[in-house]
Amino acid sequence: MQAADIDAVFAIEQSCFGFEAWSYESLAGELANPFAFYLVCRHEGRVAGYGGLHNNLGEGYITNIAVDKTFRRMGAGRCILQGLLDFARENSLSFVTLEVRESNATAIALYASLGFENAGLRKHFYQKPAENAVIMTRYIKK
Question: Which helix H or strand E contains 122, and what residues bound it?
Answer without folding.
Answer: strand 117-126
